Amino acid sequence: MMKFFRKIRQKLLTESKFNKYFMYAIGEIVLVVIGILIALQINNWNQVRKDDQILKDYLGKIKVHTLEDLRILDTLTKYRTQIATQCKKARVRILDKTEDEDLFLFMSCGVAFADFYFKPNTGGYEALKNSVYFGKINNTSLDSLLTNYHSIIEDIAENEKSYNEYVVNQETYLSTQFDTSLILASAFLPQDSLKIRATPQSEYYQVFEEYTASAPYRNVISLAAFQLDAMVLQYGQLKNVGHGIIKEIDVLDDK
Predict the structure, then answer these.
(1) Can you spell out the DSSP letters for 223-245?
(2) Helix (H) or strand (E) holding 20
(3) What is the pLDDT of residues 165-191, one digit of tens each?
(4) Which residues of 232-254 are buried (b: 16+ CB within 10 A; e: fewer)?
(5) Which residues contact residue 222 at a Cβ distance below 8 angstroms, ignoring those fewer than 6 apart?
(6) What are the CA-CA distances from residue 187 to residues 37, 94, 115, 221, 254 (Å)?
(7) pLDDT band, very low/low/confident/very high, at 200 (cuts 50, 70, 90)
(8) What share of the chain is helix, strand, coil (3-state, %, to 5)?
């Protein structure tokens, strides 16, 4: 192509057609500029497509991590709800002074002492935040949802920390006031195994009655009766936002 243009220039110069040569030269420059602009535009398109794909990869990780969070939240919601229900029943027994009518109920409330934490997977979100591609979703619906999602995570962490630290402190104090060996044996060993031991069954029940009647134990029951509901409410809020995040990512992925 360049050889073809060169022949035309040489012919115009040879024939002393300077005006035509000048116009031709301008036209050739324009063609070169247009070619450069087209090449730059194609390069920009390719870069945009590349950036969009990288962003989708980041969002894909966030989606996977959010789905993992939702599964964990479902399990925690079920677990916390069951414990709260048992503790509410026990609290009614305490207020009605009918604890001795359902010792097993108070035994089952011991699970309220378990210090569980919701541990979300924030790796995908943190990776996107620390990348140059985070600006591509800035001030979008997805940006707002992600900000809200991680704000609720912080609230959940504070609530769980408050509850768990209180429970651990109460349990630590109880361990200094009671010999928990009989309580643990009764809770985890098969009843048939306990019957053949030297310790009579009545002694297990006596220890349980004293243990569950103590103020620290009942404090945990009372706390669990209402604070676990607050946790479940926060789990529900986080799940709703999580579903919104997944929906927004799917919309962006289809573009």
Answers:
(1) HHHHHHHHHHHHHHHHHHHHHHH
(2) helix 18-96
(3) 999 999 999 988 888 777 777 666 666
(4) bebbeebbebbebbbebbeebee
(5) 87, 91, 94
(6) 78, 22, 18, 18, 53
(7) confident
(8) 85, 0, 15
